[in-house]
Structure formats: structure tokens, C-alpha cells
Amino acid sequence: MARLADYFVLVAFGPHPRGSGEGQGQILQRFPEKDWEDNPFPQGIELFCQPSGWQLCPKRSPPTFFVAVLTDINSERHYCACLTFWEPVEPTQEAACTEDAVEREEALEEGGLSPTALAPAGQLFAPKTLVLVSRLDHAEVFRNSLGLIYTVHVEGLNVSLESVIGNLLTCTIPLTGGSQRTISLGAGDRQVIQTPLTDSLPVSCCSVALLFRQLGITNVLSLFCATLTEHKILFLSRSYQRLADACRGLLALLFPLRYSFTYVPILPSQLLEVLSTPTPFIIGVHAAFQAETQELLDVIVADLDGGTVTVPECVHIPPLPEPLQSQTHSVLSTVLDPELELADLAFPPPMTPTSSLKMQDKELRAVFLRLFAQLLQGYRWCLHIVRIHPEPVIRFHKAAFLGQRGLLEDDFLMKVLEGMAFAGFVSERGVPYRPTDLFDELVAHEVARMRADENQPQRVLRHVKELAEQLYKNENPYPAVAMHKVQRPAEASHLRRVPRPFPRLDEGTVQWIVDQAMAKMQGAPPAVRAERRTTVPAGPPMTAILERSSGLHANSARRLEVVRNCISCVFEGKMLEAKKLSLCAFILGSGPCPQLLPAVLRALKGRAARRCLTQELHLHVQQNRAVLDHQQFDFVVRMMNCCLQDCTSMDEHGIAAALLPLVTAFCRKLSPGVTQFAYSCVQEHVVWSTPQFWEAMFYGDVQTHIRALYLEPSEDQAPSQAGETPAHEESPSALDVASEQRRLWPTLSRAKQQELVQKEESTVFSQAIHYASRMSYLLLPLDSSKSRLLRERAGLGDPESAANSLVTSSMAGSVAESYDTESGFEDAETSDVAGAVVRFINRFVDKVCTESGVTSDHLKGLHVMVPDIVQMHIETLEAVHRESRRLPPIQKPKLLRPHLLPGEECVLDGLRVYLLPDGREEGTGGGAGGPTLLPAEGAVFLTTYRVIFTGMPTDPLVGEQVVVRAFPVAALTKEKRISVQTHVDQFLQDGLQLRACTFQLLKMAFDEEVGSESAELFRKQLHRLRYPPDVRGTFAFASGTIHTPGRPGRAPKDKGPSLRALSRNLVKNAKKTIGRQHITRRKYTPPSWEQRGQPPAEDPEDEISVSEELEPSTLTPSTALKPADRLTLSSLVERACCRDYQRLGLGTLGSSLSRAKSEPFRVSPVNRMYAICRSYPGLLIVPQSIQDNALQRVSRCYRQNRFPVVCWRSGRSKAVLLRSGGLHGKGVVGLFKAQNAPSPGQSQTDSSSLEQEKYLQAVVSAMPRYADASGRNTLSSFSSAHLGSHVPRARVSTLSNPMAASVSRWTAPRGKWGSIRASGRSGASSMGVDVGSRLAGRDMLGAPQPNGAPPDPGFLRPHRAALYIIGDKAQLKGVRPDPLQQWELVPIEVFEVRQVKASFKKLLKACVPGCPAAEPGPASYLRSLEDSEWLSQIHKLLQVSVLVVELLDSGSSVLVSLEDGWDITTQVVSLVQLLSDPFYRTMEGFRLLVEKEWLSFGHRFSHRGAHTLAGQSSGFAPIFLQFLDCVHQVHLQFPMEFEFSQFYLKFLSYHHVSRRFRTFLLDSDYERIELGLLYEEKGDRRGQQVCRSVWEYVERLSKKTPVFYNYMYAPEDAEVLRPYSNVSNLKVWDFYTEETLAEGPPYDWELARGPPEPPEEERPDSSAPQSRRRVVWPCYDSRPRAQPDAISRLLEELQRLETELGRPPERWKDTWDRVKATQRLEGRTDRHGTPSSLLASSALHPRRSLGIYLREGPVGSTLSLSLDSDQSGGSSASSSRQAARRSTSTLYSQFQTAESENRSYEGTLYKKGAFMKPWKARWFVLDKTKHQLRYYDHRVDTECKGVIDLAEVESVTPGTPTMGAPKTVGEKAFFDVKTTRRVYNFCAQDAPSAQQWVDRIQGCLSDA
């Protein structure tokens, strides 16, 4: 029984003590005046009576009622029912309230009320509140009781208020049990109170239904999840009662969990600062104070009046796990709107009556009750009973619950289990012996029903209604209750004038009534209702629940059988069989699983196999087979580590828990008295350093021992794992045992109770000691001196390495905090490790012993024992460590030494390393599939040329495949130290990550045997080789040299000077003649961007200087030259650039230096001594009219003195291409700018400008005239007309203004461009754009070309400028119109070198990431590729080049004047020449182009490639690589226009940075002359075995193999290429992404290996066909080598056959040329019929599209060509229609010698010709495979002269001699072959030969 009301309080309005207008509540009277002993009076009631504040009101308001909730310090809730009414203010009270009117008005204004609301002239009313305080929640009874007291007062009933209040305070009712009690307060009233059946179920009335009506389903679900995940929730409403109901309804939804945080349904305004508390809460606030809640950033606000829920951005509410979220939402919508399912029916059934609000409330609660039952089903199987007596101590195994439910990654359930509400749930409902309620029955018995009803909504709804009925019955056990009879005041009674205020009550009367009732209760016997306690049912076990979801993906029995067989082989000593079955190790770990399976299924597979392993090992421990030999021990440890590898810190699957007793059981004997256990080898796992794991293990073992304590000996069973089904159904579980003991506890004697308590406490204490030892086993490393081990486990290693390592370990945070990471002293390390472990164990002991009720004395004893335990174990480990080091080392793989080039020497022998995956999926078996090649175990070698890794994959399933990854030392761009750990069972030291600009990456981890000194030595040697102090220290100079590097060899005794002497004399003369102008040689750094407009500063320390004015004798050629000068010139003439000038007709240079005056340009030797420009070649093309002595002054206007020179001339339009450096500001731009004030040196500037103007005028004058009489109409005027420019003479085409209108276009005659090929290249449409706008890439109004194709060539008007100067836009600001109108400027924006460097770095990381991507798949790669902007720069280069090509093709000359003239300028002019001149697309032409534009014109290869120590700071700049990428893009679009292959471009890309050859060393011809490289003597070159030039190497290799040749090469004469340049048309070069791990990069041809051929003796002679197929793995094999194209394969076979025949093999090029010539010849003979072969078809139709491809097929495949002929011409169209695919035999006839396996029998026979033809000796070949008899003119003939198809042979008979037959043979040597067409007469050399031929032919016929 309990009191209905504890206190009755009368609270009235009182003035504020500070005199403000707002009052405060004052308690006038309270009854009883003394506090109850069991329930003290709650403080602060006056605040909750008026939550908005105590204020006077100008009018009478109706009485209000609400229930506030107060929570005391003991977390007990007090319900305060408040009824407020208003009474007139008394005069004294009114005077006190009006004496400070001003302050009151201000206060009211701040409170939101106007001052007029007080109505000072009228009557004011003050609130007065009747408060009822109770611990029971009977809101309606409180409302009726307070209403009755108010009615007695207002209506003046003849009832004493004191008696009514006294009766109210003395009324008692039962708490629960479903009883019905009728009460009366003595005023003629009657009320019936029903108590709920069970007090554990909340009473909600209608509050839940009202909450859903106000907020809706989605919002309520969000609030539900937010409450469970401990977020702050604030309700807003204008109604206090609605606030209270909403909070009450939300708490009702949480059942069976209880909310344990701040709960204030109605918060007073004076306490609003409570909202800033950091703890979660559920609070209700009046809507008037909504403004005060706006600044709360982490509070979820629910507006009940507006129906909205506002979630801040910083708050994340995890949703319910699917499918529970969607299922719950669906059921809730059905409950709230039953007509929803019937709304779409054409004939809806009769309407069923809807549920009442109260019943709907219970239905909604039933939905959430089912939800909790589904979420927490099986929770009792994860409870650990730690203590039974004196009170149960229960702990929940969270990890096992999540793991077995498969909800480990669910954020919602994880937070719920970690919350305080669930902790209270475990403490309250985990007790095994207690009263049960509806939730217990639901979890235990309704799981199967809920599982079956999941997809049947009607059955779910039926179940919901059944549960709702039970909930309703719990609140209303007696539905037909008697009606209440309570007097109420009359209508509008509050408006009547009450004669007197609420009277002061007589305290004595009320107290007397209370005392009388207390006396009666003391005399009556206590009515105690005994609780019905039972054993709580556990429900179905977790395993049964999981069978439903995991049955489909269960491991096959075969896989588990493999695991068992492997373990058996290990323990039976069959180690070889165990290794064969080592597949189990990969089933246990992550293993090679299909990539399409989700991670959860992969984890499930691994769990089943790992459990199987632990069970098998446990069986062997029980059989006393735990002592192993060394090999068995190593194998078992490896499998344990593989098991633990994927275990998380929670050990949700119990794998670590199952292995924990095993690692302390398995051991091996190291020496007498020294035993090593397995735990010392499995410490590197995160699970061992997780406190939660040890706590769960401890509680599980304690439960096992507590259970065994109370079981009878006969019932004692083997301990079962936590969360597993017991071995026998009849065996009671630990909870069952605890329930029985709790039932018997009251019946036991005191002594027996104490005995049981002491036994349990001793059990816990002994387990704590045991676990202290276990933890020391797993936490103390074998070598305690290696504190670095602990540091790594503490997560203090390199973050990148930790993220990328195969096994990452992190120590618990507590250990990491306590460990001193800065300690560097050897002596302190051991104590640090021991101290950290002691602190970790002590914290564990404190926690578990305190929770388990261990006495303080025992706890102190444990703290004393722990350091001793740790120290003893350290001493034991020292002996184990000492003996383990004496064991023979594990047999490691033999180091595979790499193949070296001639002259390549090994600097450092192999260091054992592990090559780790670097983010490229192919090497790890991802992407396209394939083997797991990485990680690989091997060694890294450092040679004078390369860094080489050779090794084998650690995955034994891959096989013995050698993995090679190497790159040139010179290609190293970044070296980074890393710290990684690859193997669990081996402790590895630091690693190294090396990144190369050849797109290779070595991510290595050094083996433990490699000391730090060796690793540091490797780094130093690598750095020394990468950055030698001088270029003479590079591999190209050091390899194969005879004399000392840098010293010239002795000159031979010749009459004339040698070339080496010439080089020395030339440099000596240059030093004499060069004046003060500075061009440095040692370290050439370009001027900064701020200094680009100024000439370079002088260096006083440089010994070389250039004179201001050179002597005329050095500049003007004379007829009397010294022999050295003549030799210089003759040598210069032999250079590539001069040979190209002669080819282009740009001038010749004879011995007399006479010039042909008719030629517009001449070859000038002005720079033969490199006096004017040291980075230019010795011979230059300049206008005919310019004297040599004027060039010195012209050169001053340009950066680095690189003045404009001609480098190419169009053979068709005669336009020339010029190149130069950027302007210094006093050249053309200076001519255009406005005149400034005179400055010092103005005359010199004017002179230079004048010379520059003359020079450009001479260039213009030297070109053909295209201008008409009316003047020029240039690109700029063409564009400015559409820009609306008012300056008609503007000469600069800008980039900034797009065209404003379309223009009329002039279309050139189509001519040859009418073909499909032309339409694909140049496009059919054109757009009128100016040059600058095209380069800017702006959107024009004209129709753009598809795919970024250039516009029609006719976009340029026939009237154009004679010369276009393409320059940096930054230089050409503020220009004015050209007064001379000779040339036009085209300012463009070009990217700087630093932008190229940055882009290249990003490209490197995109193609070779270095670590696995966060988001696997192509999306992250494509995103990284886009961020690099590499393709955008390629697009820009191609765009500019195509523009220049169009200008040159239209007849205008172009000067490219960008940056310093040696980077982007070189790229553009090289691309322009490649696109315009077919010669440069040949092998010879491309070499000449590179030598001329890149080498002779001074691209700074050494500086851009950082070849020496001086260039280390500048880094690698891929200028030449970018050019080759552009060529690759053009090659892809025009594969038939290039003689060289894609491999040729890759070869140059690799070797221009490799420093293997001297070709790409140094920065200019001058520097090469200085080192004697440019003119090497032929005699020296002959004596060398090593190729010094890359061109020489290419030439040698091209004679041996067609690897550089493009079989599709079929150029069209004078073809100008116009490639598409849009990024969408560009492809990522496979040079960046492909890799060959079988042999390393394939660009050092001597090191590459072909496909292995089996030796002759190993080939069986059996008749069974032997397959020559082999597996080609992506990323491992070189596919062009493993699967050569058909032509290459046939050529190789032909050479092999010729070698077998003893003939010198014919060069492949001669064979190929002869085949093509034969096809052309046959094509001409068969011109009117079908071409004889596909090659002839291609020769007949040179004008075709890009439809020819060589398809790479299996070895021995035929040539497969696909041709798309032109459809434009009539002849080609007709031939295309008539063309048909030749038969296989026709194509075979061209390469029949390559098919050795088809020659079954061959020899010489005489054959009689046709009618009247003589006998003739022929070479016959019998082919069983093709069933043919072929004949040739002679044995080595490659062309078949005829074929006899054996399918047509009818008989083979002996013949007779005929006329003309050979005379020397007998008659039996003749035989005839009769076919369906004719009879063939044959004659052999003798009779046996003839008989053999007959037998062979008949044998073929019989086989058929």
C-alpha cells in the first residue's frame, strides 16, 4: 500500500525581494508540516507551479491544471499536480507591486508583455496554486481531487476543506496487482482507482497516440533513435499538459529500457540554463521561450504545435538497422491509418470501426515492443553471471552479441549497447530469478512467430493487436468500472466575484486527521502482496537465430575437411603434405575470395573455418599432444597468427577467446629446462591489448567456475564457450544454476550463506590472479629490450605504413598514454615495457574486482602480486629469448641475383626485403584477377645503373614465379622512409619507399636480418649514385670506359688534327673570343619570373665572358679559314640539323662559304664558336639579307640570346617556322608600346629595337608575297570586326574576347579532303574564330567541331599576315597597333614548368598510388587523374600545335617565342614539324627531329632531369616526356602514318631519364663539345662494346627484331595531320600504368627473356599432341612477348627455320619488304579481280580510314586484318564491294616456311608438265595437316608453285616412262597420281624412293 498524496501545498503570488515587477511564488501552507520519513518534501515547488513566472493578470482567467515531474537525488520521480486559479490582488499586495512601476514596465517589456496589460487603473488578479505531491502517477485522480477542493471553495459547499484535505492525505491504495479501490474525500464524491497488473510496464493512457498525431511517424522514429543513442531532446508547446504527455509518451516507447538521464517535462523559465548541460536530457519548455533555445547547437528540438523536429547539422542520429527500420515504419502507418491498405481498392470492404485513442496508444506501443524483442532476441545467451550471492552481478558480452547477430557495423545498436539505458536493462533484467512480464515472454517464446510473420503484414498486425490487448488490460484490469462522482464548479464560475479569497486552513485539524489515520495503519497488519518470482526463460539460442541468415553462405564441408586434414598432417609429422594443404591458411585468413562477395560473407566464411581450426587444436591439447617439434611449432604458430590476423579488437566471433587457452598450451623444448610457448609468437595482434576483450574473457571464465561450484560432480560438464549451446540439453546453464540458488537463498542458514559468499569471492580472486599471468604472457614481448615493439603496438608508428601494412596492431589507449615514447635509453626500455604492462594489468584488476565484489584486502594483495608476476615472466622470457636465438634460422628463400647489363656493376649486394603492394590492383590479384604476386619476398640490389628487386611471392599458391621490379637510379624522384609490418610472425624493421619517374615504385620493408646500418648505407649509396657531383660520374660515362673519365685520350699521330683535338681547340678558342656576357656552364638556373624582362646578370666569378662587340673576323666568314675552322665547319655540316636544312632547301654551306643570292635564307656559321648563344647549334638559318655582325645585337632582345632562327620550311606553301626565346621587353613589344621618357642607355635600346625590326622585316621579305594591292586583312582585323573594335588597325589577336557574331566563311576547295579520312581528321564544318579565341578554348557562337577537331582549313582568310608571332600573353600587355603591319602577335597563356612538375607529381600518384585507395574502383583513379590536369596540358600543347600547322599550311609563317625557348617552344615546334612533314614520322626522321630541335637547340636535359648534385633542388621536369605523350596521342589517332611503333616512344621515354646512353645528357651542344661527346672519333667507337648513343642502340636492335617497327605503316604523301585535341579524345598512355613483374621494365632488351621453350630432349615422342599453351598473367608477363602479333610470330618462325636449315637468316626487314612488294605486284596483276591478299588491298587503296588493326591472338595465330575502304571514290568503292576475305591457305602460302609442323615428308621428284610440257625436277612437300601435296622450284623457295589437294586423289599407281623422262632412273621409279581433274606423272630418284612416296601418300589417304 502507498499514500495517494504525500503533501498538499498552497502557493500564492508574492512580491519579488528586489522590488521588480515580476513576483515570486510563496508557500502559504503545506500539509503535513513535517516531512515524511520515507519521502522528504521536494524543494523548488514554487518554481514549477508557474513555469513561465509569477505575474499579475488584469483579468480573471479560467483555472488551469497540469502535472510537473521532479526528480530527487535518489532518481525517484515526484509528480506535482498543480491547479491554478486567480484571485483579486489585496490592497497591500497591490501597493507593494506598484511602488516601482517603471522597473516593472521594463521588466514586462523584456518578458514579452506590454505595460498596458497590467491595466493599472483596473483590478489586478494574482495566481494561486493548489499543489498535490505524490510518488504515484494518477493524473486524473489528482485532477479530480484538486478540482473538488477548488469547487468546495468557489461554490461554498457545506464541507470542511480541512476534512477534505485530511482525507486526501490519508488515502492509501495498492501499488500494483490489478486491484480496484474506491475512495471518497468526504464531500459526497466517489472515485475508482485501478492499479496496473505489473508495475514494470509503463502507464501511458493516450500520450503515445497523441505524440504520433502531433509529430508523425518519421519524426517520432527519429526522436526514438535519438533518445536511445543519448542525444539531447527539447519539446516546445504552448500547453504544459501537452509537454508532460509528450515526454511521458516518449518514455513509454523506450520500454523495456529505462531513461536514466535528466528528465524534466516542464522546465521553469528561471532554470533555462539547464539546457546548456553537456549530458543528454528530455526537457519540455513553453513555446514562449523558443527564442532562448535558438543558440543550442547540439539539441534536437521538437515543436509539438507545429509538428516539426529540427536536427542540427552537427548531430547524427543513426537509424534503426534494416530491415527493422522499414518494417517498423510500415506497421506504424498501418496502425495509424488502417484505411491505407484499402484506399486503392475499387470495391473496398465495409468500414471497420477504428480503435479508440487509448487502444491505438497501446497498438503503437506494441509495435515498439516487438521492435525491441527483435533487436534484443537472444540477449540472455550473452549474459555472464559473475556473482550469485549475496546479490547477483551480471555482465553482458557485447562483442559476442553483435558478432553473432551480424550487426557489428551497425551504428545504432552499437551505441544502444554502450548506453546507460542498456546498462540498467542488464542490471534489472539480467537477474535470473525475478518476476517476469510481457517483454520476457515475447523474447523467450514469440521469436519464431515474429520470424515467420516478417513478410505477412496481416499476421504482424494481428500480433500487434494481441500485444495491445495485453497492454490495455495491464492499465485497465476492470473495463466496466463504476462512474466517478466528483462535484465540479458551475460554468464560468471563475468570472463570479468570490466573497473571500481561499481561506487559511487550520493546521491542527488536518494534522489530527492524519495522525488518526496513521494510528489505524500501525495497528492493522501490513498488506504485503508477495511477488511471484520465477526463472526467466532464456529463449532460443543465438546460433539458432543465425541459421536463418547464414545458412545459404555456410562453408562447404570440403573446405573444413581440408582444414582438419592439414592439422592432422602437422601433428602426424607429414609436413610436406601439410604444405600441400596450406590452402587452409588462406581460407582461415582473408584469403583469395571472389571480389563480388560482400565483406560480411567473406568474414562469415573465415569465421567457420577459424572455429574449425580452434576445435581441432583443442582436441589435440586434450590428447596431450601440446609439446611440438620445431617444424610443427612454426606451422601451428603460423596458423594461429593467420587466425588472429582478421580479429578486431572486440573479438566478436570468439576466435581469440578460443585460442587463448591454446597459446598457453602448445610449446616446444628449446633446451633442458627452457620451454617456449606459443603465446610468445602471437603477440602482434590488437585484440590482446584491448581491455574489453580481457574483461569479457575474465567474466566468461568466472561464470564457468561459479557454475561448476554449484553443480553436483555428476553434472559437471566441460566448460562451454560464451554464447554457445551447451553440450547437453539437460545440462543447466549458468543462469539456470544462479536462478535456483537465488530461489534457495532465503532458506539457507546465515553460516551457509557466508560460506557461499566466501567461495564465490575466492573463485573470483583466483581467476584475477590467473588472468594477471595470462595478460603478462600476451603483453610482454619475447625480447623485452625491444621497446619499439610496444611503441608500434601503441599505434605510434608511421600512419601511412600502419594503414597499408598487412597486419596493423595498436595498443590500448591506456598503455599508449602510460608509455614514454620519448625514451631513448637502453636501460630504461625494459622497465618501461614492464611498467606499462603492470599499469595495464592493475587497471584491469581494479575494474573487474570492484565490479565482482572482491574484498579490499584481496585487491591490495593483487596489486602487490602483479609486479612480481610480471618480473618473474620477464626473467623466464630472457632465457627463452636467449635459447631461441641459438636455433638454426628459418630457411629463407635463396636470393635471386639479377641479370646485369654489360658494364653494369653491383654496388650493394642484395638486402633481404619484402616488396609490398603499392595500390595497383593488378599486382595483388585484383582488377583483372590473376595471382597475388605481391607481397613478395626477396632482395633489393643497387647497381651503378639500376635499383633492382628480385624475389618470389609470399603467397605459396602463386607458385615459383620470379618477381622483378627495377628502375634506373637516375629516375628516382622521391625517397621516403616508412615503417611497416608485413608478416605477423616476423618482426620487421623500417622500410623504404622509392618512387621513379619511369612510373615504378618500390615499397620495401627490410627483413629483420638487415640492420639499420645496412639500410642507411643503402640510402647513402643510392643518393650518391642518383646525384653524382658531375655528369662524368653517371653510368653512361662510367660503363665501358677505357681511359679515366674527363681526361681526353691520346690523339693518334695523324697529319691532320683529330676530332677530339678539334673539340679542345674549339672550346679554347671560344674562351678566348667570348666577351663579358655571361652564360654559365656549371649550374644553369633560369631567371625567375620577376626577372624575365631583364637581361641576365653578370657573374664576376665566371671565367668565361662574352665581349660586347665581337671582332668582325669572328663573325664575318672569310675565304681564308684556318684548318681547324674548316674542320669545325665540316663537322658542323655533318650534324643532323644541317642535313635537315639541306633536305628542306634552306641553304647550303660550301667550302668557300659562298652564298646563293637567289635563296631567301642562308646557313650562317656565326655561332660556330658558340659565341652568340651557347645553347644554339653552331650553324643557323637566317634571312639572306641579314649580316652576321647584326645578329649579335638582335640576340640581345631575347632571353638567353636565343634570337629567331628558321627551323623548318613547308614544301608546299614555302612558309617557314621560326623559334626563339621570349622577348626581353625591347624587341617587338617595345616597338608596339608607347614612347616613355628617355632613360640611360636609350640609344642602345633604340639600336637593338631597330635591328630587331630589320630582322623581322627581313624574315617577312624572305617569304612569298600573299598580300594584295589593297593591303592586308589579318586575323586580328578579322576577329576585331566581330568584337566591335573601334581600332581598325589593331594587330594583336587576344585570348580574352570571344566572338560576338558569326561570320561568312570562305571554304577551300575540298579536293582530297572530301574523303572519309579527311573528314575524320579535319572535319566537315568550320567556324570563324580568331587565333587567340581558339587557343583560349572559349565557347563560340559558331558550330564547334566534334571531338575537338580543328576547323576547316578555310577558316583563315586568303588575306592574312605574313608572320604570326606566338608569345606569352604576360609579355604582350599594353600593346598598340603595329604601324608597319608586317606581322601579327598571338598572345597565348602557357603553363609554366612548375605547373608541369606539379601535374606530373599528381599523375605519378594517380598511376602508382603507393597505398590502396580509400574507395576501391576506377572512380578514385579517374578522379586523381583529373586532378593532375596532365591531359589538360596535353590538350593545350596539341591545340597550339594544330593552330600553328594550320597557319603554316595556309601560307603564313610562324615564330614561336615562348619562355626561354627551350621547353614549351621546343615541344610546339617539334609537334608542328611532326604533324606537317611525313619525313619526321619515319624512324630516321624522328631521330633527326629530336637531334635537331631537342639536342642541338639546347633543351636542358641534365637540368630538367636533375642529373647531377647541382640539379637536386630543382627536381625532375618531364618536358620531353610530355612531348612524347603528345606524339603517342597522335600515333593513336593516325596509326598508319608512323613508321615507328608505340614501343619506340616508350623506349625513348624510359631511356631519356635512365642515363644509360650519353645522348640525352648535358644541356647543349657546347657542353657536349666541351666533354668531347659531340664529335667522337670513329676509331674510338669501333673499339667499344657498349653503345653510347641511343640511336646506335636502336639501329642495332632494329636489325635484329621489328620491335620498333609499325606494320601498319602506309603513309600518304604530303599528309598534314590534324589530330583531335579535346580531353575526351585523349587516352592515358599505358606507359604510365603497365608493368611487367616477370622481367622488370622491357626497355633494356638484353635483360628481357622470351617465352620459355621446352628443350628438345624433354619433348615426348608419343603421338599425343603436346599443347604449347601457356598462361599469360596481367601485370606479370609482357603480353607483346608472350602473345606476339601474327606478323612478328611468322617472321620469328621464319628466322628459326632458316637457322635450323643451316642458312644465314635473312633480315626481317628485307623479308617484310619483299612480301609487301610481292603483294603489290600480285595486286597489279589482279587489279580487275579480287586482290590476292589483304596487304595488296592496302597497297591498292592508300587513302582509307583508321580501320586496320593487328589482333593479338594466341601463339601461331594467323594474320587478322580489318580494312575499311574509302567510300568516296568510285574505284575504291567498287573494289571494296568486290573484295572478299582470302582463304587461310592463300594467306598461308606467303609464310609457309614458318609452319614447320606441317611438313610431314618432303623431297625432290620429277613431274611431267601439262600437255606438251617437259619433265622438270621440283621440291615436293607432303602436308598431313593441310592434306596437301605442294611443290616448289627448289628447296629454299618460299613461294608455292602448285598444290595437289589429296581430297581429290582417287588412286596412286605405278607408272611407266614417257617421252622426255630422265634416262638414268629405272622403270620402277615412276608412279602416277590420279585425281578427279587429271593424272599427275612423277619420277623419283630410284625405286625405293618412289615406293616410299607412294606409301606416304597412301598413308595420308587412309588417315583421312
Summarize the structure.
The protein is of the alpha+beta class and 1904 residues long. The chain starts with a strand and ends with a helix.
Please explain how this structure is put together:
By secondary structure, the chain is an alpha+beta fold. The chain contains 62 helices and 42 strands. Strands 25-24-23-22-28-27-26 form a seven-stranded antiparallel sheet. The chain has a seven-stranded antiparallel sheet with strand order 39-38-37-36-42-41-40, with helices on one face. Helix 27 (750-779) runs antiparallel to helix 31.
- Please outline the major beta sheet: 7 strands, antiparallel
Poorly predicted regions are 98-120, 543-555, 582-605, 714-729, 787-830, 982-988, 1041-1063, 1070-1127, 1150-1155, 1226-1243, 1266-1344, 1351-1358, ...
Instruction: Give the N-to-C terminal Cα separation.
Output: 110 Å
Radius of gyration equals 49 Å
Strand order of the largest sheet: 25-24-23-22-28-27-26
Secondary-structure-derived class: alpha+beta
Gross morphology is elongated
Q: On the 0-100 scale, what is the average pLDDT?
A: 74
Query: Helical region count?
Result: 62
- Tell me the strand percentage band: 5-15%
Task: Name the helicity range.
Answer: 25-40%
Number of strands: 42
